[in-house]
Amino acid sequence: MGVGESIKNGHDEYRRIFAKLFKSSENDADLRAKLFLDYEKKLYAHHEAEELTLIPAMIKVADLKDIGFQLETEHAAMKMLISELKKMGYDHRMWKYKLSPLYSVMKVHWDKEEAEIIPFAPEYFSTQVLDELGKKFDAFVDKHMKEH
Fold first, then answer.
1. At 54, which CATH number?
2. What pLDDT was estimated at residue 100?
3. Are 141 and 45 in contact (CB under 8 A)?
4. pLDDT per residue over 77-99, tens digit each?
5. The pLDDT of residue 2 is above 90
6. What range does the domain containing 118 cover?
7. Buried/exposed 32-43: b ≥16 CB within 10 Å, e otherwise
């Protein structure tokens, strides 16, 4: 599987988690905590894998350099918003509404990767390189998940 498919699979999983979180209430604090901590662990593995595979490859290509740096900046913004949500407490009545800014940043990030990078990656990288990046991406995700 190429790196694009690996990335898209992660995004689809996060979309499903967010759908459940947005349906939750402060009475579902335990469910929120379980889903959110699972999401955080998977997202951090996904981001680490991107930062160790795809983004360094992108930064070497003049046309992709800026978008590579944008992706890293979005990763940092997501981490900050995740930290705020965890501090707030899963039973807080405003928790679900504070989730919206995180979802907004994630949606911009997903759209950028799925509409601007993945479809055009073959213009910059060979199928072999994309497959190799996918294998490395998946290996980094697996390693992170086992270690955390």
1. 1.20.120.520
2. 96
3. yes
4. 999 999 999 999 999 999 999 99
5. no
6. 3-147
7. beebbeebbebb
Q: What is the DSSP track for 41-96?
A: HHHHHHHHHHHHTHHHHHHTSTTTHHHHHHHHHHHHHHHHHHHHHHHH-TT-TTHH
As given in the structure block, the two tokens for residue 61 are 């290509």
Q: How far is CA 31 from CA 9, 50, 91, 108, in A?
A: 23, 28, 10, 26
d(CA 20, CA 54): 29
| pLDDT score at 141 | 96
Share of the chain above pLDDT 70, in %: 99
Structure tokens belonging to residue 23: 């349906």
**And the tokens for 39?**
């999401």
Kindly state the tokens that stand for 22. 């947005």
Domain count along the chain: 1
